[in-house]
Design goal:
The structure is a single chain. This protein is an alpha/beta fold and 328 residues long. The protein has 2 domains: 212 residues, Rossmann fold (3-Layer(aba) Sandwich), CATH 3.40.50; 92 residues, 3-Layer(aba) Sandwich (Rossmann fold), CATH 3.40.50. It has 12 helices and 10 strands. The strands form 2 sheets. Strands 1-2-10-7-8-9 form a 6-stranded mixed beta sheet, sandwiched between helices. A 4-stranded parallel beta sheet has the order 5-4-3-6, sandwiched between helices. α5 links the parallel β4 and β5. α8 packs across α10. It is globular and about 55 Å long.
């Protein structure tokens, strides 16, 4: 890519910024036992590829362009790979996406439609990330994986979610619930609220609530055991399904930072079964008209559990990701 072309693409990417809606829940609050509270959903399904991963993908592809890279790579179970493929196509970069062979989602075909090369990996999500990272180191590709040394780029991208929430509410909420896989999104949100607090736009930093799967996530497992550092989760304890794929992790790549957020904000962590996740997703769709991935609906269930244990002193926000299915 010549210098003029790279500069032009960098400018195009720099103007792509998204602000997703903050929706106040109505009838579903009563069904969840939250009718006495002010509850909001920060709906990330409004992003171009339908999830919050657009934010990190845009940031990493922009950085790849600025560094003169021609290929960007990640290991993924779906959403992040689609987002990387989408923004790489806009930027004129090649995307190589590593995906576990057992992955059952149609999003693999979306990656291919956006022009990405998909490499199927025998093993887990963590194996796909490792394969992607090895290829990046060997071939000089831009490594957009969590744990690559470029995590600050993802954190900063996700921090915008917090700034948007503060702008909508006029302050930070009392608590914010976030679906947790690697923990990257939660850390970014915390940094965004911290910045808003330091700059005087918010009067507090919210309590953070980690929401995940009962089939094993390192962040939640560690918190439930009262550990300040990540505990080993035996791979055999992990049960990956089409429902919990975004959440399940025997090794969360930003677990240490995510645990620090939970302890510093006097937060909580909760885990839910696939059945509970699907029911919550159906409830949001039927009652509120909000499209939510079942895994993401864990954030709303976590607010319910949090409110059962103590009386919140202000608004509650669940970060919910969806999927905007577009015609191609």
């Amino acid at each position: 890519m010549d210098e003029d072309s790279s500069s032009m693409r960098a400018k195009v990417l720099s103007i792509l910024r998204y602000a997703t809606p903050l929706l106040r829940l109505s009838a579903s609050r009563k069904l969840l036992g939250l009718d006495h509270l002010e509850v909001y959903v920060k709906w990330e399904g409004g992003n171009p590829t339908g999830t919050h991963k657009d934010r990190a993908a845009l940031a990493h592809v922009s950085r790849a362009v600025s560094e003169g890279a021609t290929t960007v790579t990640v290991g993924t179970c779906g959403n992040y790979g689609v987002a990387i493929a989408y923004y790489a196509l806009l930027a004129g970069l090649r995307a190589v996406i590593f995906v576990p062979r057992s992955y059952e989602s149609s999003r693999v075909e979306e990656m291919r439609r956006y022009g990405a090369k998909v490499v199927l990996v025998d093993g887990t999500y963590e194996d796909a990330v490792e394969a992607s990272a090895r290829a990046a180191a060997l071939k000089g590709w831009y490594d957009a994986n969590p744990g690559s040394g470029r995590d600050s780029t993802s954190f900063q991208a996700y921090s915008r979610i917090a700034r948007e929430i503060v702008a909508e509410l006029g302050d930070a909420p009392y608590a914010v619930s976030v679906p947790v896989g690697n923990g990257t999104t939660m850390v970014g949100l915390y940094l965004g609220f911290l910045e808003a607090y330091k700059e005087g736009y918010a009067t507090r930093i919210p309590r953070f609530i980690a929401a995940s799967t009962s089939h094993a996530n390192q962040v939640v497992e560690s918190w439930l055991q009262g550990r300040l550092t990540p505990v080993e989760v035996p791979p055999g304890k992990v049960k990956e399904t089409p429902v919990n794929e975004p959440l399940v992790a025997y090794r969360s790549l930003n677990a240490e930072e995510a645990l620090r957020v939970l302890y510093e904000t006097k937060g909580r962590a909760y885990a839910f079964s696939d059945e509970e996740l699907v029911e919550a997703s159906l409830l949001l769709r039927a009652v509120e008209g909000v499209s939510s991935l079942p895994a993401s609906s864990s954030a709303l269930l976590a607010l319910r559990e949090f409110a059962r244990e103590e009386v919140p002193e202000g608004p509650l926000v669940a970060v919910i990701t969806g999927r905007w299915l577009r015609k191609h």
